[in-house]
Protein 1
Amino acid sequence: MAILTIEDLSVKIAGKLVLDGVNIEVPEGETHVLLGPNGSGKTSLIASILGFPNYHIVSGKIQFDGRDITALPTAERAKLGIGVAFQNPPPISGVKLGDVFRYLAKGEVDEIELSKIVNLPVEFLERDLNLGFSGGELKRSEIFQVLAQRPKFAIFDEPDSGVDIENLKIIGKAISGFLKGRSGLLITHFGHILRYVKADVAHVICNGKIFDSGKPSEMFNLIMKRGYRWCDAQR
């Protein structure tokens, strides 16, 4: 059974077509990776899955866990079990990371143990959310929150962007451990996260279209050899 099915999805934002006939199916228990250059439609796909209102679905549908969620509000999609670690989450003054953790964990996750897994000092729980965090701290905080939420389907937006090798290893191992037996979608430009997270299928998106899907190692090697020129040429 598919946990997420995106069928012939076309989306506009401010009148501009940003997704054009996208088809992706993620079976339950699998992790897929979406590769693509900047401006290819990766962020638009995340926003559409989450139901952000300024992303207007022109055609197609999105199904999650057997339910059509195409017209469902963002909050309701989250309640169904979709979680996301954003690439650039905003700082929020007056909201403590610990408060967010406790809301998400509902007393079912040990904050000390989880802090160790993502190498986030426990005193960060008393800090305002994302305020003054370094790049690596911000990424680890986002992963920390998603792991606390324990969603049915986890989306990790550019987890390997702007982090050093040490943080990449920590983040990669945390995501890999969490996704065992679960379903997820990794969004990445460079693909470095694949050193640590085993994905079942890779999709390459360019210009709002899925141009190819296949084994992650094959897709990644093709991109490393040729860059994204092979799909950019289709502009």
Protein 2
Amino acid sequence: MGRVTSESGLADALSAAVRGRLLLRRYDRWVYHRLRPFLGQRVLEVGCGLGNFTPFLLDRELVVATDLSAEYCTAVASRFLDASNLIVRPHDITADPAPLIEYGFDTVISLNVLEHIADDLAALRNIHRVLVPGGALVLLVPAVPALYGTLDAAIGHWRRYRRDELIRKATDAGFIPETCFYLNLLAILGWWVSGKLLRLRIAPASQLRAFDLMVPLCAFLEALRPPPIGLSLVLIARKG
């Protein structure tokens, strides 16, 4: 699987998707509560976008928020001018990680980013390098390759992940996987309808708002019983 859109179309669709994520407040809180037990005190956020998840990290000792887009980094820095524990800097996680090693990260968190990177194994290896021994990788990626459709292609997804594939790649990068679980079962239908049936390039704002209203129900049901499949996969792994 690969991207099948023009560079200008990709930029427009990705920008719309990033801004659409601003509508998912309940979803972001849900994800944070699921991931909070795995977060340390010195955190690297890979792919901060417009900073939708960044505020959940600001009670930590240090947060370094990075993104490939200098424009997004400027926007995030402007949003959180009073956060003395936040550093925002452009960085390509597939490039030389040496500038990041000095921070001594005990956690790297990356949400819906790895699928945008052609050489995802190189990204995972660089994440491994910037972590201190025992540090945690907290990763969320899109799941179920059969769901790959126009929404994925339009925003530059190279792939959606199978569980065994994600675990294997993390292991190949030097990590020791601890847990890997599906998240967000109910959203599968909406993604399939928009990206496979209707072949849309951008998820409608009305659909995003409707899903965000359903998040409490999703959270309740998945707390009762972990879903056997979901729109997303979460991987927690450690640097040995």
Protein 3
Amino acid sequence: MKNKLFFVALVFLLSCHKETIPPTTITLNVTYLSNQDFLLKGNVNQKCFRGFIVSGTAGAKFNDTTAATLGYDVGSGSYSMAIGLERNTVYYFKAWGMMEGTKDFVYSDEQSFKTW
């Protein structure tokens, strides 16, 4: 009888699984509007602080001195911002997200464009 109870308890414990939270993912779509105007569109799959980074150098992160951090708000799903930039300059764009209560940042792939 003890063996049967042990077996039932073991099967029960093994069949239980911890609910996993999917990793935070973030995407960026940059739309060229005119010579120096762009529409930045981000999308994040979880509620977090979110925004965009615009920089003149590749690889910028949140609060880098070489970058502008834009569009700070809290939410999940789509968000966007239109921006105007200086002429004849290469810019690098990223969307970013930071989970509430952490200092862990997630970034989209970086995109670059040159204004006219």
